[in-house]
Design brief:
Blueprint (H helix, E strand, L loop, with lengths): L2 H4 L3 E5 L6 H10 L1 E3 L10 E7 L3 H4 L4 H6 L6 E5 L8 H6 L3 E3 L6 H16 L2 H9 L19 E5 L3 H12 L3 E5 L6 H7 L1 E3 L2 H7 L2 E4 L13 H6 L4 E5 L8 H10 L2 E6 L10 H4 L4 E3 L8 H21 L15
Parallel strand pairs: 1-2, 1-3, 3-4, 4-5, 6-7, 6-9, 7-8, 9-10, 10-11, 11-12
Helix pairs in contact: 2-14, 6-8
Bound molecules: 3-hydroxypyruvic acid.
């Protein structure tokens, strides 16, 4: 190995690059890239790039895994907006900074949210299953759906995706109410024509409830039996966030009792498994976690995560460090 090669930084790639090959080539120009299959030891790796699917190889990035990774690791650059597969607290304890890809996912995720919202309101899953079974609209006609116009959309979590979805739902004539840990600036509220309400008020007043908040210890099962009981009978539930923000068993019960009339879901508690009570319920419109499944958005996300890898190597910092680490020094 030449002296020059010896001094090149090392990057660990967990997952594959599907679209942004030229962006990744620019990392290979400045660093040696190792993968879990590499025969070289990971010693000396400064940064790791990871994808959602690399969970299958590494499991959760937690304290135990970090203990096994080299001490040189300073940055984990996650390709995705949601980073619940990474224990940020453990990373902070190991002096490792974590980045995600905010904003890159907003349009595509909100678009699928609107698709699920309209599809669930219109009871489309019933007719879609019937036509494929050669039964036209089915032996019993699907119940008539509902129009979005004039209905209240409750947005739980008003980050980039929630705001994007609210703006799109306004175009369908929906009234927007939201609950978020922090209230939006008044000019953003005014632009979105969104009314800030308390959590219980949001549950009680929404005709459709959209989950747009990150999964963490505070939000796991934020919607469960008690919360379903506070909702209007016949509410429609849309989830493009993470399955575990809803207690899936409680959702199945609420659908069975008619408390929830229909649901549009992109995410599930135990992906890729789906609760049998959701699979068997014809009033649930199911999509297999395809919120960002477009060429444009997947490319944008890869490029964003790769730009974090480059910044980590070249400047020793991240473009989009996760908010929990904002106060991290050094
Ligand atoms: O960006 C994310 O967190 C996703 O779930 C993409 O599918």
């Amino acid at each position: 190995m030449s002296a020059d090669e010896g001094s090149r930084p090392k990057v660990l790639r967990l997952g594959v690059i599907v679209h942004a090959h030229s962006a990744w080539a620019s990392v290979e120009e400045i660093a040696d890239v190792l993968t879990p299959k590499s025969t070289n030891p990971f010693d000396g790796c400064v940064a790791a790039y990871r994808t959602f699917d690399s969970f299958e190889v590494t499991g959760k990035i937690d304290g135990e895994l970090l203990d096994a990774l080299p001490d040189s690791l300073r940055f984990i650059c996650h390709n995705g907006a949601g980073y619940d597969q990474v224990d940020v607290h453990a990373c902070t304890a190991h002096n490792i900074r974590v980045s995600n890809t905010p904003t890159a996912v907003d349009d595509a995720t909100a678009d699928i949210g609107i698709f699920l919202l309209l599809g669930a309101l219109r009871n489309l899953a019933v007719g879609m299953a019937a036509i494929r079974a050669g039964e036209w609209r089915g032996s019993t006609l699907p119940a008539l759906g509902h129009d979005p116009q004039g209905k209240v959309l409750g947005v739980l979590g008003m980050g980039g995706i929630g705001r994007n979805m609210a703006a799109k739902a306004r175009a369908f004539g929906m009234k927007i109410r939201y609950y978020n840990r922090t209230r939006l600036e008044s000019d953003i509220e005014a632009e979105l024509e969104a009314e800030y309400v308390g959590f219980d008020e949001l549950l009680a007043e929404s005709d459709v409830l959209s989950l747009n908040l990150p999964l963490n210890a505070n939000t796991r099962h934020i919607i469960s039996q008690k919360e379903f009981a506070k909702m209007k009978k016949g509410i429609v539930i849309v989830n493009t966030a993470r399955g575990a923000v809803i207690d899936e068993a409680a959702l199945v019960e609420a659908l069975d009792s008619g408390q929830v009339s229909s649901a549009g879901l992109d995410v599930y508690e135990q992906e890729p498994s789906v609760h049998p009570g959701l699979l068997s319920n014809p009033r649930v419109l199911l999509v297999p976690h395809m919120g960002t499944w477009t060429v444009e958005t997947e490319t944008k996300m890869e490029e964003w995560a790769i730009s974090n890898v480059r910044m980590a190597i070249e400047e020793g910092r991240l473009r989009s460090m996760v908010p929990e680490q904002r106060d991290m020094r050094g």
